[in-house]
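pasting for the record
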Amino acid sequence: MCRFRIKKLFGSPRRISIFLFVLVLLGIQGYISIKSGSVLFLDAPRCTPKVDRNLTFGINLPVDNRPPIITELASAMRHSWKAYTNYAWGMDEVKVISRVGTHWMDASLTMIDSLDTLWIFNMTEEFNRCRDWITTQVNFDVDRDNSNVFESTIRLLGGLLSAFHLSGENVFLEKAKLIGSKLIVAFNSPSGLPYTNINFQTLHASLPSNGRIVALSEVATLQLEFNELAMLLQNASIARPAANVYRILDKVNKLSGLISSDLNMYRPEYSLPSTITLGARGDSYYEYLLKVWIQTGKKSDWLRNEYLTAVNGMREKLIRKSVPNGLTFVGELHGSRFSTKMDHLVCFLPATLAYGYLHGMPADHLELAMNLAETCFHMYNDTKTGLSPEIVHFNLANSDKSDFYIMRLDSFNLLRPEAIESFFYLYQITKNPKYQEWGKQIFRAFNTYSRVEPAGYAPLLNVQSEVPSYKDKMESFWIAETLKYFLLLFDDSLATKYDLRKWVFNSEAHPFPLHSSGTISVIQDLYNF
């Protein structure tokens, strides 16, 4: 604890008064005023956050004793990182076919998103080079109106917080405080829901061109990151605006606990459950209900009940079995019409259900997770390349056709992580080797069809063509999530250090430690309503 004895240090009452006066001045100077001043950030934490520097993360097996798949993964990571360093250093993303970098938010996005992956792959030199660049070059001050609040929170804020926890380097916490102080401005809206975009220089927050609609996932996948920053700084005001989103969503119309993926920004309580999906625009709301409940000490009855009600609603309204082989899948609702469409993004759900089971949710959640994970595997296994398309449609009628079909415009693969994420969670909980076998098969398909020379991995345009054609962008989540989850799936000693009873991964696969009750207490009351 941060303790001192004023009287012993300073003696006379006059000296004490002078000391306290100076403290007040420094305190005023140390606050960052956010826009209207509705939220204040302390310039430094009250106490230095405790980081266990004795933890050693990374591939620890001697090279000669590594399973071949670990060596292959290390090669894939270096091949991917080579593309970024050679073609796009300091930029947001890399085009691996054109061999150039691109800007989106001018925030070194891929670099920050990749920090903890570099760390666990033991790429120390590369990690340190990133740290030095971030220290001097990253200030989140570019005049650009399209910096997405959701993506910035899960990738940038989340990446910095995770890098701080793993390395103990204070620069990452300082940069997390800086971007957090800017992102929080987005919550200054009439309803309290955050705006979609923010300009890091002017702090002007805005909606996209459609004007009034925000995505459920984008307003409700911010809480883990702001909670983590608030706990590190022991300042509840940092987490309050994000936590307040749940109070707003509590008043929104629901269908068996499920919420429309499109919300009215200005009158969210009048949003009708018109489109309900666990794919794009809806997915991570449900993930964060569970994870925030766990992160905040499992004390919030509202979070727990909303999550359980939503899972029951999924079973009732969205989950079906395909024909002819009875694959369990998650469809969508468009008004009263059921659609058999399932995004690859929905493959996050087995991981979430399994994580919930590990933390005390019902046993049938694990059974559902295993059934859905098998479906996700078939989305890979049943294509010509062994890679999943972005979207599939399942068959419900009696048919001699396959369980799902792929529309031509949906046949691309973006190097997404969700299936591998779920295999990692399920392997850690069940120890069933089939999840490693599935992962190995999928990784080698990526190596066959998406690896490009001289560096990088490229998204496939058509998973049903064995002659690859590519989309010209390596998404940052390929390194931040997909390769990380592959390594955690196969390296048992490394996965043990990321014990799922002691860590929570954000939606971008950035791990945060689960804190003690004393640390959690600063934010716990925000979720009791």
